[in-house]
Design brief:
globular, 5 helices
Length: about 60
C-alpha cells in the first residue's frame, strides 16, 4: 500500500525517506513488510502520502 501511494505522489524512496527522517533502506523494508514500523514513522508516512483512513485500516488488519 505504501509503495503504491508513494508512486502515485511521484516520490522516490529516497525522497520520501528524507521527508520522514529515515534511510531509504528502512523505507524499502517498511514497504515490503520486512520491518515493524514505529507508530510515529507510520503517522508521518500517512500524512505525507495522504492515505485515506479506510486504506490504513485494511493495511493494519493484514
Amino acid at each position: 500500500m505504501i509503495k503504491q501511494y508513494r508512486l502515485a505522489n511521484h516520490l522516490s524512496q529516497e525522497a520520501l525517506a528524507e521527508k520522514i527522517g529515515i534511510s531509504w533502506r528502512q523505507l524499502q523494508q517498511i514497504e515490503h513488510s520486512e520491518e515493524n514500523t514505529r507508530i510515529s514513522t507510520f503517522k508521518k508516512i500517512v500524512k505525507i502520502l495522504d492515505i485515506p483512513d479506510d486504506e490504513i485500516i485494511k493495511f493494519i488488519r493484514k
